[in-house]
Design goal:
Elements: H1 24-30, H2 36-42, H3 50-59, H4 66-69, H5 80-85, E1 109-111, E2 114-115, E3 121-127, H6 151-163, E4 169-174, H7 182-193, E5 200-205, H8 207-210, H9 217-224, E6 229-235, H10 244-255, E7 258-265, H11 274-286, E8 290-295, H12 310-321, E9 331-334, E10 343-344
Parallel strand pairs: 3-4, 4-5, 5-6, 6-7, 7-8, 8-9
Antiparallel strand pairs: 1-2, 2-3, 9-10
Bound molecules: iron/sulfur cluster.
Length: 345
């Protein structure tokens, strides 16, 4: 049971051996690469890529933490991690059918920062910020500023959760919920914990992957302090994203009683091969994470160059099934606006 004392609002910072320095992640976040020229220079890329990178950056800014950049191959524009974050000229073109809100989330915004699409669970936009800006993101045009609740608006959101006894799960999303401070997260989780019909706390996050030091003592303190069952859905698209530091972060989370799942997106030039998908599932399991969803690409404008046709995605998954045990198979799904659940392809 969560402690209802001020300790939650003033997380002490355990300085245990093996844990990252408390708050070190915030310095890494502040120091993330935000300049397309700097990204190209840091990776030793050809200068011819700079104009396209700057054009894409003007539409959706570059943000790449050093801990993630360090896993990329030098001077390789086809590196699967780089491709996820390097802006391209192609982002300026948007073929018909590619839109700014492919999941029509605006229609399901029940309160500022609260999306209620599916029975039994609601999604809370906990932080408008991400630690990394993924070029294919279906929320790359999301109006975060209109959906970033203030403390008083959180009261309204929490009332919504208290009043709907059918809810069993609160999903913290964003942006990236772990971009919020531990003080804010502890405040929120304490209030969710006090809603009797809620059973589960789910976090959708990429931060333990892109800055593994995010899983530090202050985070583990509020995470272990709640009675709610904890599920963390990571977002990893390629096996190369999981280095020893990420595996260490996963181990700390598992030790804190968190069920770890992964969702990825099938992306042209990143993971659209059976070998890449097989390696991803294997590496996830080595790190204690179960593959959960493989999302079909959502047709968001500016990212059409990542699209993989459904027939090809299905063919890849069919072959993947011949190589992996069932528990390492992610489910290939698409989120169809208006449907009561994800739709298997
Ligand atoms: S919401 Fe997730 S996919 Fe989108 S930019 Fe942030 S971390 Fe990347």
């Amino acid at each position: 049971m969560i402690t209802r004392s001020s300790t939650l609002l003033h997380c002490s910072a355990p300085d245990e051996p093996g844990l990252p320095a408390p708050g070190g992640w915030q310095r890494q976040l502040a120091g993330a690469i935000r300049d397309p020229r700097e990204l190209c220079r840091r990776l030793g890329l050809d200068a011819s890529l700079i104009p396209g990178a700057e054009a894409g950056h003007s539409l959706f800014e570059v943000r790449v933490p050093e801990a993630f950049a360090a896993r990329m191959r030098h001077a390789d524009p086809d590196d699967p991690l780089l491709r996820q974050v390097l802006p391209l000229d192609a982002e300026q073109t948007s073929p018909e059918g590619y839109v700014t809100d492919p999941l029509q989330e605006a229609q399901h915004t029940a309160r500022r920062g609260l999306i209620h699409k599916y029975a039994g669970r609601v999604l809370l936009i906990t932080s408008p910020a991400c630690a990394i800006n993924c070029r294919y993101c279906f929320r790359r045009h999301f109006p975060y500023q209109e959906n970033a609740p203030s403390r008083s608006q959180w009261d309204d959101t929490l009332d919504y959760l208290r009043e709907d006894a059918t809810l069993r799960e609160a999903i913290l999303s964003g942006g990236d919920p772990l971009a919020a401070s531990d003080r804010q997260l502890a405040w929120l989780v304490e209030r969710l914990d006090a809603i009797p019909h809620l059973k589960r706390l789910r976090l959708h996050t990429r931060l333990p992957v892109v800055i593994p030091d995010r899983v530090d003592g202050p985070l583990l303190e509020w995470l272990t302090g709640t009675r709610l069952q904890k599920v963390m859905v990571l977002h990893i698209n390629h096996a190369n994203e999981i280095d020893e530091a990420v595996a260490g972060a996963c181990a700390r989370l598992k030790q804190a009683g968190v069920t770890l799942l992964n969702q990825s997106v099938i992306l042209k030039g990143v993971n659209d091969s059976v070998d890449a998908l097989e390696a991803l599932s294997e590496r996830l399991f080595e790190a204690g994470v179960l593959p959960y969803y493989l999302h079909a690409f959502d047709p968001v404008s500016g990212a059409a160059h990542f699209d993989v046709a459904d027939a090809r995605a299905n063919a890849l998954v069919d072959e993947l099934r011949t190589r992996l045990p069932g528990f390492l198979m992610p489910t290939l799904v698409r989120e169809v606006p208006g449907e009561a659940s994800k739709t298997p392809l």
